[in-house]
């Protein structure tokens, strides 16, 4: 397993997220090409949805892994992945084969971002009917929603299978949800132990999977969640790591920030606050980045100041 550290002296890394909603492939391609030439941007990310989450529900959405494969072949430096892959959309062994292929295409630059995916909440969970966009998305593509408990169990099973596919020549696997017989996976990923595994998680049950299996943990930050809330989740992960017999410093802390058109000052403040509490990987995204001068704006107003603030 990749060993990482989120100590105070670890260098900050800033990535870029391009959510594939209401945007053309040409625009995403252009932004990734520009980002590949900017040393301050260490990694780039897509998402994993089949319908828009906001705006026109009939609007354009590109599929994540096929788009990632294309961009992997047309970039040379950026680490890359999906933030995060929905574990509900692909069978575990198929996902392992896809990830191996993209790691080969990219020359060993893949980070395996993974999350539970769409689940159905119980009636007493406090949600508003129709509020969960996964309901319409999964119904449209014939994918059954499952309980959060089952989703988390399936996530852990997938991580176990992925690591076997990346490191073992042939194996059988008998799990609660998956049975594999004589599974082989060649070529293996370029990265000797396989891509580092990033898991997106919020609740305690999902954080236990992070504590047991992840190299990197990611969580949505401002404006969706406050720095205080994100910090509390990080401290919970520390406790769960100790309970699992693992050093919390082995898991890199990663956070996403959405930057509005006039939100650069708030984003700079958030990056400074998050790095102060141990986050050393920040992924930023903005609708403005698709404009002709948008990535320059993001670089000058958010990314470079973020690096400067992290060194104070």
Describe it:
By secondary structure, the chain is α/β, with parallel strands linked by helices. It is 39% helix and 16% strand. It has 9 helices and 11 strands. The chain has a 9-stranded parallel sheet with strand order 3-2-1-11-10-9-8-5-4. A two-stranded antiparallel ribbon has the order 6-7. Helix 6 packs across helix 7 and helix 8 packs parallel to helix 9. The radius of gyration is 19 Å and the shape is globular. It starts with 12 loop residues before the first strand and ends with a helix.
Helix-strand makeup class:
alpha/beta
Number of helices: 9
The rounded Rg comes to 19 Å
CATH superfamily: Luciferase-like domain
Judging from the principal axes of the Cα atoms, what is the shape? globular
Helix share, percent: 25-40%
Number of DSSP strand runs: 11
Strand numbers in spatial order across the main sheet: 3-2-1-11-10-9-8-5-4
**What is the string of SSEs from the N terminus onward?**
EHEHEEHEHHEEEHEHEHEH
Kindly report how far apart the N and C termini lie. 31 Å
Uncertain ranges: 1-9, 123-130
CATH fold naming: TIM Barrel
β-strand percent reads 15-25%
Largest sheet report? 9 strands, parallel
């Amino acid at each position: 397993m990749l060993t990482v550290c989120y100590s105070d002296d670890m260098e900050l890394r800033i990535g870029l997220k391009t959510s594939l909603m209401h945007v053309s492939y040409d625009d995403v391609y252009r932004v990734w090409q520009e980002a590949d030439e900017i040393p301050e941007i260490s990694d780039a990310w897509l998402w994993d949805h089949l319908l828009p989450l906001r705006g026109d529900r009939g609007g354009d959405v590109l599929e994540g892994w096929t788009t990632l494969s294309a961009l992997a072949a047309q970039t040379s430096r950026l680490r890359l992945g999906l933030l995060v892959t929905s574990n509900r959309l692909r069978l575990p062994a198929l996902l392992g084969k896809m990830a191996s292929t993209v790691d080969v295409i990219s020359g060993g630059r893949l980070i395996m971002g993974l999350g539970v995916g769409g689940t159905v909440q119980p009636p007493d969970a406090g949600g508003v009917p129709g509020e969960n966009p996964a309901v319409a998305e999964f119904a449209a593509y014939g994918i059954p929603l499952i309980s959060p408990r089952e989703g988390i169990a399936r996530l852990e099973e997938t991580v176990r299978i992925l690591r076997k596919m990346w490191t073992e020549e042939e194996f059988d696997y008998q799990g609660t949800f998956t049975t594999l017989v004589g599974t082989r996976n060649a070529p293996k990923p370029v990265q000797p132990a396989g891509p580092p595994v990033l898991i997106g998680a919020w609740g305690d049950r999902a954080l236990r999977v992070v504590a047991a299996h992840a190299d990197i943990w990611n969580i949505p930050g401002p404006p969706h969640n406050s720095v205080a809330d994100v910090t509390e989740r990080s401290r919970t992960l520390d406790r769960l790591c100790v309970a699992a017999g693992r050093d919390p410093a082995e898991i890199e802390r990663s956070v996403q920030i959405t930057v509005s058109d006039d939100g650069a000052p708030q984003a700079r403040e958030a990056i400074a606050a998050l790095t102060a509490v141990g986050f050393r990987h920040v992924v930023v995204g903005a609708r403005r980045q698709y404009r002709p001068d948008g990535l320059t704006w993001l670089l000058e107003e958010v990314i470079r100041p973020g690096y400067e603030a992290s060194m104070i």
